[in-house]
Records
---
Amino acid sequence: MKINPEHLEAYYHLGLCYHQQKDMSSALTYFNKALKLSPNEERIHESLGFCYLDFKKIHRAIEEFRQILAINPNSQYGHLGLGFCYLEQRQAERVLDEFNQVLKLNVQNDQAHLGLGLHYKFNKQFDKAIDELKQALKINTKIEVAHQNLGEIYLERKMYNLAQLEFEQTL
């Protein structure tokens, strides 16, 4: 039986649509149908991983991101996804390892800088957090969560003018 590649794309994109609509059950159904047609396709494992991560199924997300790295050890998305999973689990050493691996592959990865910034903020290393969050915003000015977290740090430090500027960026 010949696989119709259009079905793969339809299943994959339906999974993306349902994921964006926060319908995890339907998203997973379509991503898994796509995966059956193309089991070694990184983008499908990536989408499954981030779907599981968004719905706090961290162990399942880790499985998907590890599968990406089994296919391609230099995948930014595999390391990035693991970094965010470990951030959720507060596994500091693993967080640093994964996000730094992403930055070795691509120093301009705004999400890796964001992840490091969040990690440092959670661990009250505010100077490092500010540096990483600013670096993420230097690469991509539209990361609301970076502005939000910078605002929170500035507010905690009683740097009200800077906090206001960051919070205004999220409006």
---
Amino acid sequence: MIKNIIILLSLTSTFLYAQNIKLEEKIYKENCLICHKRLSFNLKQIYFDYLLKYSSEETVKLALVDYLKKPNKDISVMPKEYIRRFGIKKPTLLNDKELKMAIDYYWDRYKIFGKLK
């Protein structure tokens, strides 16, 4: 009986985790990728620029939240030429939970930690 409960809990947990990943991906694609895929500067390059400047997962994510909530050329990692050409984006319309989910998906999509051998 206990074994069955543990299996059920494990399956439920796996299902919920998969659903969360799908929701993160949906938010990311519908709110980030939709615009960035049209621009000359892709999200992967932006990820590496943030990683170069902020180093760790925690500081990169905090910097992204700060920038996306209150975009400002002084805190942008984008090249000045890019900002002159395209300007600064508008503040995100995502709520805090959705923004966190989008950034978590973005981080997982491009992270290099644990992938290098």
---
Amino acid sequence: EHPSVALAAVVGVPDPVYQEVGLAWLMRKPGAAALPDQVIRDWCRERLANYKIPKRFEWPDELPMLPVGKVDKLQLKRNSQKGTTSA
């Protein structure tokens, strides 16, 4: 829903403190300015319960898609486990 975000997906990633936290993969709308993570975090805080707010954010140019038009969350999870920040 954020005016600067065209597409978003959240996957769980391992965390040494919480066991697993949310990693949000966000694709900017064409022409949208880059946003600091804190701006998105504050925006989420106004709309989501605290435990649902992602702890980390990645801003790839594109997200991997399945043939049916959905975001390929398995690929995002693999990328995050490898430490890859590009989708």
---
Amino acid sequence: MGCPLIQKVTLAAFMLSGEAGIWWQGALQRMIVAGTQVNWENFKQLFLEKYFPRDVRHKKQVEFLELKQGENFVAEYITKFEDLVRFCPMYDDVGNEEDKCVKFVSGLRPEIKQVFNYQGSLTIMNW
């Protein structure tokens, strides 16, 4: 989104409504009382613990790691890959683009993999 890190908490909190907004007000007060720094990493950790339990995240990570194209069209595989990669921080980092590509290609059907003549640096953006 291009939002400076320091403003992410403010923007995210602004977007919360209903029960989530009430939850954040309480969480913010507890952080202040405890002397916990109100920053993006702490916000993300609290938010994920509350609304996206660890066991669900782990299931999504396993689903990503086991993802194969199977009988799907490449476009469907790409959509599923992009949906699940965000649950695996080791692959969803700009610095790990080549590892991400290796994972992507490894999930393709063999006859489609043959189309690739992998040489040098590869990025998902080349697709």
